[in-house]
Give the backbone structure.
Amino acid sequence: MSPVTTIDAPTTPDASPRTRTARVAVVRTRPETVIADYARVMDLAGYRNTLSRDRDTLIKLNLSWTKYFPSCSSQPWQVDGVIGKMLTDGFSRNRLIPIENKTVVTNPGEGCRNNRWEPVLRKHGLTFQPLTEVDWQVYRFKSPLLKLNEIFPEGIQIPAIYPSRQILHLPTVKTHGHAVMTGAVKNSFGGLLREVRHYAHKYMHE
């Protein structure tokens, strides 16, 4: 890994005159239809209104434990359903990059194998990219935040492959011993900071 470099925060674009409202889609599923149901829930959520086929897309997986435990990390059928849907909708496999970071209790490479992501990614012609094997950059805050400035006064480190790419999160909604509840926000948090991010767990909901 090369030395850590520093990047400035990008300029925040002017707010769109059109107010954007978050959309939540819920679909009842069963084993026989789960792959198709992922495609259906993605359409109901309007994901193509947010993600462009003309940009690289990071697919942020969720690895809570290196070993497989049900309902703990991104399930292989979730990975299969989401990637299959994106390829069907015209996203180029060359621009889809599955990623995951390490924690103090996980190894992303072993987790990819143990959680059966590896055969799913191979099936779709994709290669897993552990964030432990990419360069990281220091991102310095340009405006005050509720807690991160206090916890990381020198800025945070983010993967160098993040800037200019869009990202799709595959979180696991579950309880958490420190953050109480975990989902998409915490999954994004897991890809933005190094292992020391656990210092911020108790402030997650702020």
